[in-house]
Request: fold
Amino acid sequence: MTPPDPGPDQGRVIVRGAVRRFVLLSVATLAVLALGTVLVCSRIAQDSALSEAKLRGATLAGTVAAPLVDQRVREQDAVAMARLSAVLERSMDVGSIAHIKLWTPEGRILWSDERELVGQTFELEEPVDGLFANQGTVAELSHLEKDENATERSEIELLEVYTGTRDADGQALVFETYYTTDEMRGRERAILGAILPVGLGGLLLFQAAVMPLAVSLARRVERGELQRNRLLRQTVLTQHRERLRIARDLHDGVVQDLAGLRYALPVVAAQLPGTPEAGAARETVEQARDILARDVEALRSLLVDIHPPGLVGAAFRDAVGDLAERTRRAGPDVRVELPDVVDWTVDVSRVAYRVVQEALRNVVEHAEATSVVVAVERREDVLVVSVGDDGRGLPPGTAVEGHIGLRLLGDHLEDLGGSLEVAPRPGGGTLLTATIPVDLLGQG
Reply:
């Protein structure tokens, strides 16, 4: 049976698949680039906003808040607190400041726009606690998870700035300001608007430029794949024809000659005299006749091995059954597990038959097994053939390369895109597993 040439439809499938993979990879690349750009722009905007917030917080602390804090404020004098509140609240009105807190070294809130926090004490962690001594500034994007932020968590996130300073009496205090993130997010959007179109647009133009190259490469892959399928098809067909020729030559030549000689020997024996002196000659003729009978039978079995009578459809089941029966006559019990429907091509059946044949031959010659299981199963786009026995198993260090028949079979399967594995069988013995692509000839 000669499989049909893979036509243009298969080539179009190959090109469409390659172009589809290219487009999907391009989209994934764009998505990764866009995400990376968003993250970088967000980080740039955040760093810029924090730097600006640190400058504004330090300026407000040193020039506005600190000069108004003295002993009267620390003692919560009403007049002094009212004057401080008026100045700080006015600063909040003209800026993007959401909240202000003044801290003492003990962690006590000296002043806050949230009146319920005034007088409360919280633990200040590093590096904020160190600002009382070094009078520096630290800033972060806060998600308002600290105990001091219990009344502010509805705002989700704020820019938080701590500035160490000295009040009018030279006492250390920390001035804390919270800024909204509206400006930061606006800046982030502006940066994205400037960078993202350039980056993604450039990549889109590049992909548009290389698309013809991708299509050209896909067509070259298509031609290579079609050529490979033709070579595989020709290889399998050539092997099939060569086996058929050898089988025909043996059957019509050597087997017929030996069979004729076998039937001629009784005629020769009948011409021998019945004297005791001719007894040895008659015995020799009988022995030769028995040897010829065995040889003819062996050659006929070999003919079946070289070229099975039929492997199309259900005939594959019968051919594997014949292999199993011949193995049973050699000793081991053989159980065959085949699907009810043989839904693969005759060329795949020929390869599977060779796998079972070689595996059972090795079981008989080397395994010393009492039982064998032959299983053939289709799994999507591959046919899996396994032969497991309960014999003596593989000696340490044994590999497929050590057996000529298995090595040749493995090379043949690899050429067809399949595989061959010989490994210890769970529970003892040996398990041979072969995979055969069901589309090895370019058809489904």
